[in-house]
Amino acid sequence: MKKYLAEFIGTFVLTFVGCGAAALSGGVEGVLGVLGIAMAFGLSIVVMAYSIGNISGCHINPAVSLAMWINKKMEGRDFIGYVVSQVLGAIVAAALLKLIGSMCDPIITGLGTNGYGSLSYVRLDMIGAFIIEVVLTLIFVLTILGVTSKKENTSVTGIVIGLALAFVHIIGIPLTGTSVNPARSLGPALFAGGKALSQVWLFILAPLVGAVIAAYLWKYLSKEEKKEKSK
User: Which terminus of the chain is more solvent-facing, meaning fewer CB atoms within 10 Å of its CB: N or C?
Assistant: First the structure.
């Protein structure tokens, strides 16, 4: 239960701070802009990695947990427990953001949701959104699998993963708002409703597809690396 609670807390912080930065700062053209929002997500990972990393591994993302399960770094029971905890953490964070937004003057209705078409800053269509989310998730998850594969990287793991998340957000925010995390997308969409909720399926499915590709790609790459070392 400690691991599940840690994942709940971590996903809550990621969603509350990251999506909160996007919503409360006014989005792409707001106070923080793309770089500010990207850093909010990235720094959330850094802070949580060094807070709860030794308890749960700080996945705080169903796509990451899926890749870890495929690579046999966690059991099926824990995978389910992690995903449930992550989704609940994102939902509670979104609920709190909505409450805070209702107390602002004027009321802030945005929740940092993802979207394509009219909900995309550059009006990216559905196919483009699916492709970019798969690619960005692949990059992000592959980075995690690589940096966590060696014990000597332990001291810098959180920083590398946080920078990787900020990195993919820089290009992804104008396109889709950047998901790469089904829980982070589902929580805000549930409270935003409308188009954000009708489009959330893409931001659940595409990151999972990207994670599967990254997991099997890493399996292949790490297998080849072991072969080279054994020669």
Answer: C
